[in-house]
Amino acid sequence: MATYLVRHGESEGNCHRGYYGRLDTLLTEQGMEQAREAAHELSELLKDNSAHEVAIFTSPLQRAFRTACILEENLDVPCQIEVVPYLTEIDFGRWEGMDYEEIKEKYPEECLEWQEDWINFRFPQGESFKKFYQRVEWCWKGLERKIDAFEGDSVVVSHGGVLKVIKLINENRPVDDFWKLKFSLGEVQQ
Question: What does the record give as the active site (predicted)?
Answer without folding.
Answer: 8 (tele-phosphohistidine intermediate), 89 (proton donor/acceptor)
